[in-house]
Amino acid sequence: MLQFLSLFNTIFNDAPQPWQLGFQDSAAPGFTGIVTLHNTIGFYLIVICFSVFWALFSIIYYYNTKKNPIAHKYLTHGTVVELVWTITPALILIAIAFPSFRLLYLMDEVISPTLTIKAVGHQWYWSYELSDFVTDSGDAIDFDSYMLPESDLELGQFRLLDVDNKLIVPVDCHIRLIVTGADVIHSYAVPSLGLKLDAVPGRLNQVSFLVERTGTFYGQCSEICGVWHGFMPIAIEAVSTQDFLLWVDSAS
Ligand SMILES: [Cu+2]
Questions:
Q1: What domain count does the chain have?
Q2: Which Pfam families match (predicted)?
Q3: Residues 6+ apart with CB under 8 A from 248
Q4: Closest to 166 measured CA to CA, from 128, 120, 116
């Protein structure tokens, strides 16, 4: 029974599943907003598809010369119907634009972050810098994060997704992520956290996110960057603030 009930509490999707079509489970408010917007627009999409195809097929079915050789010969213009099919789409676009811009500006906002992390894309791995903390020698904490080769994988680790050094972040903290590239353009993308930022050499891109629960969240480089583009995954582990500080202590 316990095992059966635990089915409803289990988070299945912190890594992609084979042949998955839907979203991964959200772990950040930003991604929850993206899923909600997707569902809102999906509603309009279904309504529009049904009404357009219904109109199209009924016109083809009823108004053809085989069925009515003479009756519709002079039916060439209708002002009312023209007005309806011009104004209605405009109203629908406005209805879609409002929630879209709302989410866009909400996600763009960076208000007093607790922590700043810089992620740098290289051919072909990611490196991280945490400048809020210094090591004993006075430098910022920085480390490289390489994909684990298949031969090094342990039971429970994901092929092409797990890395040697995960990025550790605290839960329930506003984190500022600054992304750049060291050589060519990469893209820092973690679906369950709603992150996707281009890593452009000579440019700093910024985003803010908050992880709502502990766990490990996987992503991949999302801008084709060379032969091993598919082998530079991202793994972020969200832990309690206490565990995060312990990790910082061990890293510095
Ligand atoms: Cu890439």
A1: 2
A2: COX2, COX2_TM
A3: 130, 133, 141
A4: 128
Residues 129 and 104 in one domain: no
Span from the CA of 139 to the centroid of ligand 1 (angstroms)? 28
Neighbours of ion ligand 1 (CB under 5 A): 186, 221, 225, 229
**Residue 11 within a domain:** no
CA distance 210 to 198: 19
For 185, the domain range is 115-251
Ligand 1 centroid–CA 220 distance in Å is 8
Centre of ligand 1 to C-alpha 127, Å, is 14
Q: What CATH number does the domain containing 74 carry?
A: 1.10.287.90
CA of 206 to the centre of ligand 1 (A): 18
For ligand 1, the distance from its centroid to the CA atom of residue 186, given in whole angstroms, is: 5
Residue 200 lies in a domain: yes
Helix %, strand %, coil % of the chain (to 5): 35, 25, 35
pLDDT, tens digit, 9 for 90 and up, residues 25-39:
999 999 999 999 999
Q: Note whether 70 and 190 are same-domain residues.
A: no
How many angstroms does the Cα of residue 11 sit away from the middle of ligand 1?
28
With helix as H, strand as E and coil as C, how does 119-146 read?
EEEECCEEEEEEEEEECCCCCEEEEEEC
9-18, 72-81, 136-145, 213-222 — which is least confidently predicted? 9-18
pLDDT of residue 65 exceeding 70, the answer is yes
CATH of the domain at 144: 2.60.40.420
How many angstroms separate the alpha carbon of residue 175 from the centre of ligand 1? Answer: 23
